[in-house]
Amino acid sequence: MDLSSVKVVGGPLHVATVAEVGALEQEFRTPFPIGYREYITTLGEGVLGGCFVRIYPPWRIQNEVSIWRERISEYWFWGEDSDKLTQQQAIESILIGDTVNGDELVFCPNREGKLYVLPRYEEFMYELTGSLLDAVEWMCSSGKLTRRFKKRDFEPFTTKN
Known about the structure:
Distance between the termini: 30 Å
Structural class: alpha+beta
CATH class: Alpha Beta
CATH superfamily: SMI1/KNR4-like
Order of helices and strands: EHHEEHHEEEEHE
CATH architecture: 3-Layer(aba) Sandwich
Number of helices: 5
Strand order of the largest sheet: 3-4-5-6-7
Low-confidence stretches: none
Number of strands: 8
Mean pLDDT: 93
Helix content: 25-40%
């Protein structure tokens, strides 16, 4: 995925700073996936693809990680794929994005180079290798989560207080 080809619709952008990403990595004591810093400092918070993929900025990750981990502790639907990511590993993971359909994108700090898509309506998960930008492109173009689409419009919004 080439961020320079993304068309921003509306505005203004609500980008994170490099310092905010660095502080987030220090807080969680782990580097975030390759491409996360580039995405969130270039586009920031919003919806990609017209209305499909949302990558969380540092402030949203900090606000929601505990709630997400509690929910995953209680409701775990992807047991058939425990060879990819166990429930315990998911609880230790960090939710970094989602789709408007409710599919979630996570990374597990001790499984470097892998990202996991937990589909809302499926009992299996997708294990992706590569960068965050590769994962976002897969979410838009694989046809697994929604119909394939080429539109790479980005509509900014913010959840920052």
